[in-house]
Design a protein that fits this description.
Elements: H1 10-30, H2 35-38, E1 42-45, E2 54-55, E3 60-63, H3 73-88, H4 91-94, H5 102-117, H6 131-134, H7 142-149, H8 174-191, H9 196-206, H10 212-228, E4 232-238, E5 251-254, E6 260-265, H11 272-288, E7 294-299, E8 307-309, H12 326-331, E9 337-342, E10 356-362, E11 385-389
Parallel strand pairs: 1-3, 6-7, 6-9, 9-10, 10-11
Antiparallel strand pairs: 2-3, 4-5, 7-8
Helix pairs in contact: 1-3, 5-7, 8-9, 10-11
Length: 396
């Protein structure tokens, strides 16, 4: 009986490695921007490997000596590109949440293949999974495909790529894998010839997006903390020193809840769905800090009456003309913290407002966040804290 992962005879192993080397050269010629990743694969011939190549998270490619030498070089090269895609996009780690049940694991395997194979339709095996063969839109992340696959019955003849029966030795450390990913991403950007999916992956790898929701929450808490430092005297809560002079009511120092105003750019250039999304997120942030009301000032070229509502869903977005948020700043002058939702295409106040200002920018261009100073309608002044809010996209 064959022992697990038993290595083949020298002649069979030589045939596997020779076919692997030819396929790797074919794949590198087909996608030169992935050459570094292709040459980082470690071939691992053994008789327990699946009939088709299978890669583990340590960049070992498991090859079956009974099938690999007979596989045409273009087909084997296609599988090399396929598995490099899984490895670079960290599908092994992303799969862990789907591994509790067999059906979930199968759904993830199909979804991960769909994410990879929409960039590999040429030379693909007839039964390879792709968004097209599943009847789904292309350009999505595997997590999104997994959610959509829960709603449909995929064709039974479409089978995901195989998993290796065991994990091979650690060919690279986690740091080396990270450095390799960044090197491949830089090569993709330098060449500019990769498919759209790979270009988007390179952009995310080299310039990962900061979670705008977390940054917004941090800035709001910082603004509230600064405003809370302002104390005043109030007779609403008598001073404890009044006990020494009962006939005199002395005021006590109080720290009121800071007033927050939200100025919403309702000009025609900002999508309503984006504004509603940001308002809903802001609503949750303020509720977590103890605010029960949301004070919203819609503004295009004029500031509309403030709306004081208990939930963001109750806000009526009015306006739709040009853009000049300066009247909105004037209307919010009495607040301690002003949060502005805009695409940045507006004139700004000539002087720094008294409140702490947070600007949420929707899909800003580089010129919009340059901080070139007040008065420039295409730059946010340096006195404002900026949160970049990307529009929700389906594409990766």
């Amino acid at each position: 009986m064959t022992e697990p992962h038993e290595t083949p005879a020298p002649s069979a192993e030589h045939a596997v490695l020779e076919r692997f080397a030819g396929a790797r050269l074919w794949a590198a010629a087909r996608a030169p921007y992935l050459a570094s990743a292709l040459f980082a694969l470690t071939p691992l011939p053994h008789e327990d490997a699946p009939p088709r190549p299978a890669a583990d998270e340590h960049w070992n490619l498991h090859l079956n000596p009974a099938t690999a030498p007979a596989t045409p070089v273009p087909e084997l090269g296609w599988w090399l590109l396929h598995h490099v895609g899984h490895l670079l996009r960290d599908h092994h780690a992303r799969a862990r949440r789907y591994q509790e049940h067999q059906d979930e694991a199968l759904r993830w395997a199909r979804a991960a293949d769909a994410e990879i194979n929409d960039d590999l339709t040429r030379d693909a095996p007839a039964d390879a999974i792709s968004p097209d063969t599943l009847g789904l839109p292309d350009g999505l992340l595997a997590e999104r495909y997994a959610a959509l696959l829960d709603l449909i019955d995929p064709p039974p003849h479409l089978t995901p790529c195989a998993r290796p029966p065991f994990t091979g030795p650690e060919a690279m450390t986690a740091l080396e894998r990270e450095l390799l990913s960044r090197a491949v991403a830089a090569e993709i950007e330098a060449r500019g010839t990769a498919s759209g999916g790979w270009r988007r992956w390179a952009e995310r790898t080299l310039r990962p997006e900061v979670d705008w929701r977390a940054r917004l929450a941090r800035l709001v808490r910082r603004g509230l903390a600064q405003a809370s430092g302002r104390v005043d005297y109030s007779h609403a809560r008598p001073s404890r020193r009044a006990a020494a002079a009962p006939s005199v009511v002395l005021p006590a120092l109080v720290r009121p809840l800071p007033r927050v105003a939200v100025v919403v750019d309702t000009s025609g250039s900002v999508a309503r769905t984006v504004l509603e999304q940001a308002l809903a997120e802001l609503d949750g942030v303020l509720r977590a800090t103890g605010h029960r009301w949301l004070e919203v000032i819609c503004c295009d070229t004029e500031a509309y009456p403030a709306q004081r509502v208990r939930a963001a869903a109750r806000v009526e977005l009015v306006g739709g003309g040009g853009t000049d948020l300066r009247p909105g700043f004037d209307a919010a002058a009495g607040a301690d913290v002003v949060i502005v939702l805009t695409d940045g295409d507006t004139p700004w106040p000539a002087r720094r407002p008294r409140p702490y200002v947070i600007v949420c920018l929707f899909d800003p261009s580089p010129s919009t966040v340059a901080g070139a100073g007040s008065g420039d309608r295409h730059s946010v002044p340096a006195w404002a804290s900026v949160v970049r809010v990307p529009q929700e996209r389906s594409a990766r």
